[in-house]
Every structure is written in structure tokens, then in C-alpha cells.
Design a protein that fits this description.
Blueprint lengths: L9 E2 H9 L1 H8 L11 H17 L13 H17 L4 E13 L2 E12 L5 E6 L8 H6 L1 H14 L5 E5 L2
Parallel strand pairs: 1-3, 4-5
Antiparallel strand pairs: 2-3, 3-4
Helix pairs in contact: 1-2, 1-6, 3-4
């Protein structure tokens, strides 16, 4: 029997799902309908790119061997990580793959920010890394709940006020 209410915590991905389709949110997260989740190629690529970029920012060596990355996507993952690491060697990373949590009224909002760093002009930058080739427009980002929650998460959850919000495919 359903409790007719989601009890939280509210991750940015769940809030985005709710904003896109409240019925799907309810079926999955309130009613407990189980759906077999297929790991799609974009999901596998994204999760592995994020993991390897986090390794890069911890100044650990990246294992360029195939390892646990499935063969069909290995080459694309390595290409994206190589491009990223070649373009971002000099940034001063404050946080990489950092979790945040903050309250809004009686609700707890949680999430994970990809990277917070200081650029060469001394600005604090919050960056969301995208692994697809389509870069979101400024209008999209201004209305995107996920990016808005990252900003609030940095301020209210981490005590950092970003000067600049960016997203990039690399």
C-alpha cells in the first residue's frame, strides 16, 4: 500500500523528473512500481567520464586500460576524458564530485556538483560536465531546475557563492 507521499530526501534528479512528468515520479517513487532499468550507452559513458574526471582532479593517475568500461563505449569515454584532462590541467579545483545538502522548509534537498574551481581570473566557477555533444543554451540553463539546485547547493550546502555557472561537453 502506498503512503501517498514521497518522504525525501529530494535529489536534483528526482525534482527534475517530477518537473518533466509528475505521474512517472509518483509511479516510481511513491507507488513503488519497479521498472527494470536498462543501462544505456549515454548513461554508461557519462558515469565513467565523471568517475575518471574525478580521479584526474584528485591527482591520481587515470587507468587508461579498458577495465570495467564496456568495449562498445570505452573509446568514446577515453576520448572525452583525454580532451577534458588536456584542457583543464591548470585549474584550481575546490571540489570535485561534491555532495551537498540543505533544507527548504521541512524538505531536504541533496545532490552532487561535478566541479567547483577557481579560474585564472580568481572567479569561483561551478561547472556541470555534459558528455553529449549538445551544449545547452543560456535560456535553457536559466530555467533548468538541476542547474538552479546546484547553485543553491553550492551556496546553502557548501557555503560557496559561485561567480560563474558553466556547463560544458568536455
Amino acid at each position: 500500500m502506498s503512503n501517498n507521499r514521497y518522504r525525501g530526501p529530494y535529489r536534483q534528479s528526482l525534482l527534475k523528473l517530477y518537473s518533466e512528468c509528475p505521474r512517472k515520479f509518483r509511479l516510481l517513487n511513491v507507488d513503488g512500481i519497479e521498472v527494470e532499468k536498462e543501462k544505456t550507452a549515454p548513461l554508461i559513458i557519462g558515469s565513467n567520464v565523471h568517475k575518471l574526471i574525478h580521479t584526474f582532479h584528485k591527482r591520481e593517475s587515470i587507468d587508461w586500460r579498458r577495465g570495467e568500461i564496456p568495449y562498445p563505449v570505452w573509446e568514446q569515454v577515453m576520448e572525452l576524458v583525454n580532451i577534458y584532462s588536456n584542457h583543464n590541467r591548470g585549474i584550481e579545483v575546490i571540489h570535485s564530485e561534491v555532495m551537498f545538502e540543505f533544507p527548504i522548509n521541512s524538505y531536504t534537498i541533496t545532490g552532487t556538483i561535478d566541479i567547483v574551481y577557481r579560474d585564472n581570473e580568481g572567479r569561483t566557477v561551478l561547472r556541470d560536465i555534459k558528455t553529449d555533444s549538445t551544449e545547452p543554451t543560456a535560456d535553457f540553463l536559466a530555467r533548468d531546475i538541476q542547474f538552479s539546485l546546484y547553485y543553491l547547493g553550492a551556496i546553502r550546502g557548501l557555503g560557496i557563492k559561485p561567480d560563474l555557472l558553466v556547463t560544458c561537453p568536455q
